[in-house]
Amino acid sequence: MAFASGRIRLLPEQVINRIAAGEVIERPAAACRELVENALDAGARRIAVAIESGGVERIEVVDDGFGMSPDELALCVQRHATSKLADDQLIRISTLGFRGEALPSIGAAARLSITSRPAGAEAAFAIAVEGGAVGEVRPAAGPPGTRVVVTDLFFATPARRKFLKSPRAEADAIEAALRRLALAAPDVAFRFERDGVAAFDLPAQPLAARVASLLGTDAAAALLAVAGERGSGDGVMRLSGFAGAPTVSRATAAAQTLVVNGRPVADPLLRTAVRVAYRDVIPMGRHAVVALFLDLPPEEVDVNVHPAKAEVRFRDGEGVRALLIGALGRALAVGAGHAAPPLRYSPPSPRPGLRLVYPAPAAGSGFAEARLPLEAVPAARVLPAPDRFHGPFAAASAAQPAPEFPLGAAVAQVLDTYIIAVAADGGLVLVDQHAAHERLTHEALREQVLAGGVRAQPLLLPAVVDLPPTQVARLLERTAELSRLGLELEAFGPGAVLVRALPAALGAPEPAALLRDLAEEFAELGESTALEARLDAVIARMACHGSVRAGRRLGQPEMDALLRQMEATPRAATCSHGRPTFLKLSRAEIEKLFFRR
Cα–Cα distance between 77 and 129 in angstroms, integer? Predict the structure, then answer.
């Protein structure tokens, strides 16, 4: 084995410290996060953070926590010194800043000053570290708690400073990290200043209020409570928090806060579980808004697998994944109108322009609580099962004499595509008939798959469908999966397949178009995609082919039946591609648009 220098040597202690600093403090946001985690571990009830020039010039963190004695001050800047491990096993870790490397790492890369005073002590003491050189502990003035000031970050490692982004980008990263920490600790007051301007100032508050403060008003109005539990006895895992309605999504995952035992993480297993739970209700490429809190025994999770503590490792990863997907699925599985979004608008101006966004209903909005007497909708009182609707939903809707109709009564169809209905509060509901029926068909097929398989409808005359040989091969490789979905295929020469049966819930779709889409779907999914994911993706494609098309005229009974089915179907506020199936404009909102309010 050869080396460039020709020999192996031990690095100087100063270089070792700077290498360790680079692992833990890769940018100002990491330094800021470590200092705030230390404050939380110290029992702080209020934390104030101020930065200058993106944290490179100055970071100041002040807390009212336990504080440190002179002896503890001298130890806290030494590598691998910590008060946060109960034993030497690294198993039951219940604190945030357990690694014991943040302060010496910051001190190795910057100029660090710490002033601390324990509660009840007569005076404070301070210590300074500059580029790894530790000063003496000295008396100082200061209130109970700890004040940490970091200046000239990375002056001792100028190569790392060259790789930093602009001060604005670094400040944004710090704010994002602090928002996640503030969300994880709602009982602690947080204040954050950027170059002398307060970015947020939050009192200690209930979790729902903290979520609303940090995620914004549109997301706050669309939050659904999430709760779940798995396991028993001492090994139980609990999930709580809030999930945004499908109609509120973001271009990135920045609005996803995932907290494990009080620690915000960006764990791939958790994020994948969120993505799987939302894959059928938001458009591809969009990201859900969630604030989820997972609590489990410390020995069931390893938090010591990432220098920045962003990722964790679970002993029962599959159990954690199942807990998240199941709890989120239950939260999202509501019928249209019961927890679905009313239409919002921008306040009108002398030259009004209507802007539509889709948050979920605020409490008391009148939408979920809309009660429409049967007498107000005679066409929906007793509905015959319309033969233009396929599957079990039409018949089930006809038999439901429910006294509540959140989506109201249909009054018209416009552009042969949209249904207009009047709700009990006088508001208007606009329904996309194709998107709505696509979701109904999707859920019908999904229920049948879960029950053991989709009911197949044999064709009187088998259909021969010509396709490119590559598409034929893809379909024939999946005949077992397609059979579970009610689609029976056979080989019919090198460039064709024979279709013997179609899913009964789809009615009579065009086989050629359906098979072409399914072949493309299999090509996109690839071999590594799990069977469950493949089946659900294929169901979504099939549902589109079996749904009421835009441009088809519907009679009054059919329109009312569609509304009733939407109210009874899980996830019916969005179609299989994540688009909204309906919008609502309340009577009050209509009156505001016409300046009557």
Answer: 8
Q: Which CATH architecture group holds 207-332?
A: 2-Layer Sandwich (3.30)
Q: Which residue has the tokens 């909204």?
A: 580
Please, which residues have CB within 8 angstroms of residue 270's CB and are 6 or more apart in sequence? 258, 260, 292, 294, 320, 324
Residue 141 in contact with residue 2, Cβ under 8 Å? Answer: no
**Quick one: angle between helices 433-450 and 531-545, nearest 10?**
140
Contact 580, 432 (CB under 8 A): yes
205 pLDDT higher than 90: yes
* Confidence grade of residue 125 (pLDDT, cut at 50, 70, 90): very high
Place of tokens 């009050």: 588
Per-residue pLDDT tens digits for 17-41: 655 555 567 899 999 999 999 999 8
Rounded to whole angstroms, how far apart are CA atoms 577 and 507?
A: 21
CATH superfamily for domain 13-202: Histidine kinase-like ATPase, C-terminal domain (3.30.565.10)
Judged against a pLDDT cut of 80, whether residue 107 lies above it is answered with: yes
Tell me the residue type at 542: M
Please give the C-alpha separations between residue 184 and each of 177, 257, 441, 444, 484, in angstroms, as whole numbers: 11, 8, 39, 39, 43
CA distance 429 to 343: 9
Q: Where are the domains of the chain?
A: 13-202, 207-332, 373-597
The strand ranges marked E within 557-596 are 582-585
With a cut of 70, say whether residue 94 has pLDDT above it. Answer: no
Q: By CB neighbour count within 10 A (0-12 exposed, 13-18 middle, 19+ buried), where does 227 fall? A: exposed
Distances in Å between the Cα of 436 and the Cα atoms of 417, 421, 430 are 11, 14, 11
- CA–CA gap between residue 539 and residue 525 (Å, rounded): 13
Q: Say which residue the tokens 């404009």 belong to.
A: 585
What is the C-alpha to C-alpha distance for residues 540 and 446, in angstroms, rounded to an integer? 9
pLDDT digits (tens, 9 = 90+) for 277-323: 888 788 777 888 899 999 999 888 877 655 555 678 888 888 999 89
If phi over 0 gives left and psi between -120 and 50 gives alpha, with beta otherwise, what is residue 279? alpha
The answer as to CATH 3.30.1370.100 being correct for domain 373-597 is yes
**Tokens representing 572?**
């019916």
